[in-house]
Amino acid sequence: MANQEEIFKKVVSHAKEYGFIFPSSEIYDGLGAVYDYGQLGTELKNNIKQYWWKAMVQLHENIVGIDSAIFMHPKIWKASGHVDAFNDPLIDNRDSKKRYRADVLIEDHIAKIEEKINKECEKAHKRFGDAFDRQQFVSTNQRVMEHQKQIDEIHARYADCMNRNDLDGLKQLILDLGIVCPISGTRNWTDVRQFNLMFATKMGSVIDDSDTLYLRPETAQGIFVNFLNVQKSGRMKIPFGIAQIGKAFRNEIVARQFIFRMREFEQMEMQFFVRPGTELDWFKHWKEERLQWHLSLGIPAEKYRYHDHEKLAHYANAATDIEFQFPFGFKELEGIHSRTDFDLSRHSQFSGKKLQYFDSELNESYTPYVIETSIGLDRTFLAIFSHALDDEQLDDGSVRTVLRLPAVLAPYKAAVLPLVKKDGLPEKAREIMDMLKYHYMVQYDEKDAIGRRYRRQDAIGTPLCITVDNDTLQNNSVTLRDRDTMQQERIPIDNLFMYLHNHIKPMMLK
Ligand code: GAP
């Protein structure tokens, strides 16, 4: 059984080998934490976007979508708090000259202790078999309890330093925990400093006179500043939402784990505007609805968990993350935040424009409260892709690599394969291609033996293979091979559309 590290390596190499994801600027040795989506990756990414857009915009009459510009007025980032507070605490190791996020060094240290707890649990599980009760074990085993106490103490010190912005305290914690640089192995650390994550650029023809702009670090602010435009032009009534998919940029210092943490990435965000006082009910609603969206992709529920925030940002009155079990552990995939009226109030204050809503039922004006759902598109791609990739052991002892993508997201919905390259079969297969290709992404392949072609389609996640053989010419039927079961069935060409439609139907509609 491959370990998690090997599985992750396989995910990265498979993504490259089959044209899903390439390192950016690869012929120039790449650019740190920036990636390009290849021909199949682009299809999968577009399908994820569409699945989200349909769930959020098309299926909700009170949610509309926008596409705001990446460049925005610099005051927006002052109002949002990003200029002053969108920082990471950084620390350098003097020997390796490597830079780290102080909080990540501490979190990695905690993860190592958690790993020890997991090992103890695994050992006990083996010993006790089915009778093993993890809950009971972790609350009674002496060694595990000591590890947990250590973790709790580190957490408490760490949270206290972060709350008080105590950078010396953070450095002291790193020293006290004996954390060493993974490269040099030494504890020769500099002081901790705050580092703003926004990329700055200039707008205008004369550099000296031009304004400093920031590449947006989130898409959300483009929604807030368009709140009134959308509300008035769309005659939207509260509660209503505005959704957006777009690029965001962050100068991440610890950019790693492939497309999990990138410097240029995409977000799918929705701000839901509600009456003050109703926000916690809506928060609960969106927390549940967003998890259902993830589960509708058919990935098992145990791969997801909520992480409710104990420490809230000053503007939030509730927050949770939906975490996913990536090959490198449970990590944030989506954030759901109850952001009060913070953003609209701040933009009112900084722009001098009143951003309020007149509620005709209450006969009063107020600044709406906001529930935000914010999901990383690239992280969702990684979650789905890594879960889908499987090396399946077959009965004959061989292994087939299969990408079990949800059919609705697969780059190609079907492959059309003439059994042989003669006897009029390619021509018949081309007819089927022409019939389907406007409606579905389908691929034609006539090269190599049919078994190899099936395997190629398995590896890129194509849910169905349509094989054209001599019988097809006689009775106008084809063989359909299912990617997951490898079962084959014969159906009339006339039924192909209906079959594809039913097979590919989004799971949220099934
Ligand atoms: N508007 C709220 C917001 O931006 P966030 O937690 O900073 O909140 C939301 O980001 C989501 O965006 C995260 O849950 C994650 O999926 C994704 N994300 C954030 N930073 C990322 C990065 N550097 N690379 C890839 N995805 C990222």
Low-confidence stretches: none
What small-molecule ligands were found?
glycyl-adenosine-5'-phosphate
| Averaged pLDDT | 94
Spatial strand order of the main sheet: 3-9-10-16-13-12-11
Measured between the Cα atoms of the first and last residue, the distance is 34 Å
Largest sheet: 7 strands, mixed
- Give the total of beta strands: 23
Question: Would you mind describing this structure in some detail?
Answer:
- This protein has 510 residues and is α+β, with helices and mostly antiparallel strands.
- It has 17 helices and 23 strands.
- The chain has helices spanning 4-17, 39-58, 74-80, 82-85, 102-128, 134-140, 142-163, 167-176, 220-224, 227-233, 279-295, 342-351, 377-388, 425-436, 450-460, 470-475, 496-504; strands spanning 21-23, 35-37, 63-66, 87-92, 99-101, 193-196, 200-203, 211-214, 240-249, 264-274, 304-308, 318-326, 329-338, 357-359, 364-366, 369-376, 389-393, 399-403, 414-418, 442-444, 464-468, 477-482, 488-492.
- The strands form 7 sheets. It has a 7-stranded mixed sheet.
- A hairpin with a 7-residue loop joins strand 7 and strand 8.
- The longest helix has 27 residues, at 102-128.
- The two termini are 34 Å apart.
- The chain binds glycyl-adenosine-5'-phosphate (GAP).
- Glycyl-adenosine-5'-phosphate is lined by residues 218, 220, 250, 252, 261-262, 265, 267, 269, 332-335, 372, 374-376, 378-379.
